[in-house]
Design a protein that fits this description.
The chain is of the alpha+beta class. Helix content is about 20%, strand content about 40%. A hairpin with a 2-residue loop joins β7 (about 105) and β8. The termini are far apart.
Length: about 130
């Protein structure tokens, strides 16, 4: 196990589906798969996907396609080898990475927003050098 330097927790109605999305679209690897939560990692980054308790999950509706939850103060960011590859993987797993015309340059990175299968906003970045 790598020494973890940072990470985040995502609460999900469907832990398996959301974990598959982050695994494929954001280059994370599942290191722990337990009932109720999955731990995904990439180097020193750890993402824990935790099941929303049933009594709360019943009140949450996830539309198809999922509607982006832009009213949150946080956005998860992942460095990927290819935004185009992340875009394809996201679409295959119920999420979205915005189209190429919505990409922009930030510092030495090419950047694009998107969302996971439950509408949680993310950003992917690739090295632009």
């Amino acid at each position: 196990m790598t020494s973890i330097l940072g990470g985040a927790t995502v609460f999900a109605k469907d832990v398996e589906r959301v974990s598959r999305f982050y695994e494929a679209a954001c280059s994370l690897v599942v290191s722990v798969r337990e009932p109720g939560f999955h731990v995904l990692e990439n180097g020193p980054l750890q993402l824990v996907v935790v099941s929303i308790p049933e009594h709360i999950a019943r009140e949450i509706q996830v539309s198809l396609p999922p509607q982006r939850r832009e009213d949150t103060a946080l956005k998860l960011m992942f460095v990927v080898a290819s935004i185009a590859g992340a875009r394809e993987a996201a679409l295959e797993r119920g999420g979205i990475i915005d189209p190429p015309e919505r990409e922009w340059q930030f510092q030495a990175m090419r950047v694009c927003d998107g969302h996971d299968p439950e509408g949680n906003v993310i950003q992917v970045r690739e090295n632009a050098l």
